[in-house]
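Please supply some protein, with fold tokens.
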Amino acid sequence: MALERLSRRVAAITESATLAVDARAKALKAAGEPVIGFGAGEPDFPTPAHVVEAAVEACRDPKNHRYTPAGGLPELKEAVVAKTLRDSGVEFLPGQVLITNGGKHAVYNTFEALLNPGDEVLLPAPYWTTYPEPIALAGATSVVLPTDVSSGFRVSVEQLEAARTENTKALVFVSPSNPTGAVYPPDEVRAIGEWALEHGIWVVTDEIYEHLTFGGHEFSSILAQVPQLADTCVVLNGVAKTYAMTGWRVGWMIGPADLIKAATNLQSHSTSNVANVSQRAALAAVAGDLDCVIEMREAFARRATLIHGLLNDIPGVTAMEPQGAFYAFPSFEGVLGKDIDGVRPADTLELAEVVLDKAKVAIVPGEAFAAPGYARLSFATSDDDIREGVGRIAELLAKAR
């Protein structure tokens, strides 16, 4: 019997839709096309100057030219603990922190260390496209719980309870949300946390957009709302979104000591320590004040209002006003199936192709987030690009018949 050429588990992984859209948009730009990209979730601001300077100094220090502890620099772990107490209202010990190669690595480490074959993970949708893949790699199953604009893209305790089985191991909880921009109010966060506690279900909470909320909506940490979850809760975070540091690749996971030890052992055999210069830069970011963060949030809040208004002015398109993160998540169901400049897109996968080909605007189809009929537009770009890009979409969809 011939051996299979590739690992079945890895061969089953799908490409990241957001990175694929961004790559195609950048390739078209490089070829001279006037493409406007609403694809990748990447702040358009430069990394704050004091963070860059910390990295420059780190490069000059020979101690950063060598291996350091696989789980992260002790100083950075301590700073993450202090930052989490300040921002989330939850107290941890440095031994409960693992510094990872970006937020995605924290997600991967968490599911590898937590899940076993046959386990089920409750995954409210729309969800970030990466979550299901490491769940599947761990041999577990994602149980998708659809939400839509009528519920504010928020899952209810009733939905969670209806989906719970004897195999339910964990819940993925994200607020503010990628891709919808939804923010759960504190009472709903508390109710979900109490439900998970009652049934002994782990909560994997992604707090990477914690500082990006708008219009009176506020971030609320599920562990602060339900402290008794401490033994069955993992907090995921990083510097990418808050400090405009996507390329520096520093994230972290915080949780019970036994889980963090297991994940650290895993990391010691996969990547070892995160690049020391990036860790020193992250230390400068999380140990500093939030002045630069506030400035960026004000810009994102303005852009949220701008893109929401422009999208809702397009016939057949409806959008909930973004409450957090930096994404609009409009429904295009009103234009699907219509003739748009000679093409009849049956779904948002096809619509995204039409919009990129004919309007030179990159959007991410909702199918990537288990939400067909919708699309994600990142407004982590300039006001002028938002006006121009949505304007091109409006001009194209005006041809729909």
Remarks:
- The chain has two domains: 8-46+292-397, 49-287.
- The CA atoms of residues 133 and 233 lie 20 Å apart.
- The two ends are 56 Å apart (CA to CA).
